[in-house]
Recover the amino acids of this structure.
């Protein structure tokens, strides 16, 4: 029997009560129910400063970028939940992948973009507004696909009015929303499993 796909789950916000963190937990549960092993990564815990070329020249790439690279290498796929700040993904998530892109090969470890290249990825978004973070979702698709080199599955889901979407236990109140999350999770695992068999 083949080992389960390992999926790295990341929320694009780390603030207390963040809707993206809540949705990431729902997505991780959906992935686990579909047979995957999941790890949730806190981007804020990486301790990455805002990218600055002078900082990089003086001190090199921070270790938090290596933590992200190693997490990507240890997993078969990634699922990211992005909020929307003024129509864009959060600086937290963009900055983390900016730093990842600066890593050069080190010993047996590939460059940062080598760790992300061809990695299956699924995207969800959340927002209190009526679009559910759709604008940031589409920008994240472009950034991770074209710049970071990941394979983004076509299926995606934007959770609208996220402030009203979760019950006291953290579960989604709307069955259709849960079905959409399940569908994205299933699509990611189909791609991940197909690549593992190739």
């Amino acid at each position: 029997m083949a080992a389960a796909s390992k999926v790295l789950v990341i929320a694009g916000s780390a603030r207390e009560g963040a809707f993206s963190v809540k949705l990431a937990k729902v997505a991780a549960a959906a992935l686990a129910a579909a047979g995957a092993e999941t790890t949730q990564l806190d981007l804020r815990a990486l301790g990455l400063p805002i990218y600055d070329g002078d900082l990089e020249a003086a001190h090199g790439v921070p270790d938090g970028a290596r933590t992200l690279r190693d997490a990507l290498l240890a997993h078969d796929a990634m699922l990211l939940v992005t909020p929307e700040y003024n129509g864009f993904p959060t600086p937290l998530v963009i900055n983390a992948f900016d730093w990842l892109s600066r890593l050069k090969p080190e010993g047996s470890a590939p460059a940062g973009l080598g760790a992300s290249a061809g990695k299956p990825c699924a995207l969800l978004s959340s927002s209190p507004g009526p679009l559910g973070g759709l604008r940031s979702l589409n920008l994240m698709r472009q950034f991770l696909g074209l710049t970071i080199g990941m394979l983004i599955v076509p299926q995606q889901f934007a959770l609208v009015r996220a402030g009203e979407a979760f019950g006291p236990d953290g579960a989604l109140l709307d069955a259709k929303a849960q079905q959409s999350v399940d569908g994205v999770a299933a699509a990611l695992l189909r791609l991940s499993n197909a690549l593992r068999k190739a």
The radius of gyration is 16 Å.
